[in-house]
Amino acid sequence: MPAAGLAQQSSDLNSRFFAGLAPRDLNVIWAAAKERRYLANSVITNQGSPADHLFLLISGRARHFFITQEGRKTLLFWLPPGEIFGGVAFLSEARDYLLSTEALKDSSVLVWDRAIIRGLAEQYPRLAENALLIASSYLAWYVADHVALIGQTARQRLAQALICLSGVIGEKTRGGVEFDATNEELASAANISPFTASRLLSEWQTDGAIAKRRGKILLRSPDRLFLHIV
What we know:
This protein is of the alpha+beta class. The protein has 2 domains: 3-148, Sandwich (Jelly Rolls), CATH 2.60.120; 152-226, Winged helix-like DNA-binding domain superfamily/Winged helix DNA-binding domain (Arc Repressor Mutant, subunit A). 43% of the residues lie in helices and 25% in strands. It contains 8 helices and 12 strands. The strands form 3 sheets. It has a 4-stranded antiparallel beta sheet. The longest helix is centred in the middle third of the chain and has 27 residues, at 125-151. The N and C termini lie far apart (53 Å).
């Protein structure tokens, strides 16, 4: 692809990772990556494996998850296009991936080898700064999630999970914001049992705060949902 096309494609992606970089710099950074495609339900990175690559999701959808010592799969962040993962590849000391990442839909990613992305970060310091800002936002999410776990009710945590997911992966419709999520996924995101999640979702659907369709949730209004948790 011509250099101008690379700059336009990276601009259209609107990724935080590329914020503040000039088009000519984006051309170099984008061209240094390889594009890979993953089918839905494919695992892209495995927790505990060497962090040899940095990834940028350019289409589709992905999600982080963690496998506990007991073998339980715990769902974490949902990733829309424009988000990076495998950021430990930036570190000078070789590390393993802390989390696993899976494609939820057929997805395309840009992939940089560890040596290449570290070299680009030296050449373009703003790239490393952007990665640090993204890592900081993940830490803020973790703090908020931990505080919610010890200080909020199951009802409040599930409502917060719905609102968060609607903002990250939701699509606006005439009736509100719709996104893909099963009861089990929402239960994991809110740290509650699937039974509790099902009961609360049914209650909120009866009250008109949400609407459930096959594998989808329609959040009619965050303000309307808050009326049911205060």
